[in-house]
Amino acid sequence: MPFWASLNAILQTSLDGVVVVDRAGTVRGWNRWATTIFGWTDKEAMGRNFADLIIPARHRKLATARLVQLAQEPGEGEFVSRVDVTACRADGSEFPVELGVVRTEADDGDMLLLGFARDVTAERRAMRELETAQEQLRRSEELYRYVVELGSFIPWIADEDGSLLTIGQRWTEWTGTPVEAGLGEGWVGFVHPDDAPEVDATWQRAVRSGDRLEIDYRLRFAGGDYRWCRARTTKRTDVVAGAASWYGTLEDVHEHRLADEASRRAQAELSHVSRLSAMGAMASVIAHDLNQPLTAVAHYVRGCKQLLPTLAGDNRDAIAEAMEDADRGIVRAGDIVRRMREFVQRGTVECQAEDLAELVEEACRLALIDAPMRGVTHRLSANARCTVMVDRVQIQQVVVNLLRNAVEALKDQPRREIRISIGQEKPGYCEVAICDTGRGIPAEAAERMFDPFFTTRKDGMGIGLSISRMIIEAHGGTIWNDSKAGQGTTIRFTLPIASGHESPASS
Q: pTM for the complete prediction?
């Protein structure tokens, strides 16, 4: 095939813009893709200098010199140059071009250069966008690492089934073990034994449902101590890959958790103090209001005692004895009211050495006067003779209150027994235990039974046990619930033994 026919075939079939120039730079060939790229038609381009057509003015001298150099180099049919250059269109706009040059020889011996040009504007734009995206990604990763380093949390990733795939390096700092120890299901072994079953079950439920999860639990740290941590995670599905993963963080919230607990305790204590204050005010008002009717009753009883000698009849002595008992009861009630008001107002107690067994025995006679009519039996046993420094009236009131509670608890019970025991279970202290065979105290009420205004009885006010605790603690003792499930109710309290009255066992 003649040379020009072959060259024309190349021009027509090439997918690049092809420009053919001679040694002088004159255009000898121009295909339709060259027209598309540079904007000149073949008629406009043929016979003109290539540099004037497609090279910006500032680069033309250098382009012409390079053309002369390429024309003089030996070889034929090979790419003698492949470069990226800045070209210009017919409208003067500039754009990047990838240019490959092949040298060949025409039939007449003239040396020709074939330039294969490709507009790479879109590629360069895409490359710049890719570089920008990569730079943004790099900065984002740096920011993420910076935030992770500053924050008190560990990032982690798990597969769709909940098995840990990766975990942050801070895991080693926290637990003192390599990261591999926490992968898979290994992290569960670092959870506190009391928390592990619930944490694992909650995690498995979230894996099955795909729901977002946030949970607190205690994690074992390097020193063997446990700290509260908070795990947060959410599921994400890769639309392209079709795979799902769990992305999460583990945060150390130990100090925050302790602060919250301290705040709750402070609020509970403030509420407790407020209730005590209200109870004290109410007790003071009740004591004041009761004092006047008690005084009036005392005057009436003593007036009746003075009138008895003037009466005749066989029952005069019995009535006199009853009046004497009533007088003593009123005096005792007045003492209770006076002592309670002083205790509530000033928090003081009038203590003297008392035989605890005699004190409790007298309180039993007062509190259980109607017990036989209710079918209630009681047994008092003293394993040790204890002398304590107490306010007799106040301690008797505590015992009376506990005994009356026991009697009420035995209502409608098939077995109605109360056991009162006195002993020395702790050195330096005497202990009183009051046990009944009633229904016992519900578990949900056991922790609150000594709180002011808390009661499980419909007609209860919720102040008896609270005042009892105040009295016992004011005497330096302790009162607590020692009930066992299915064995009724047992309340115990202790009182310090009076100085100089310790038994050999206690000393």
A: 0.40
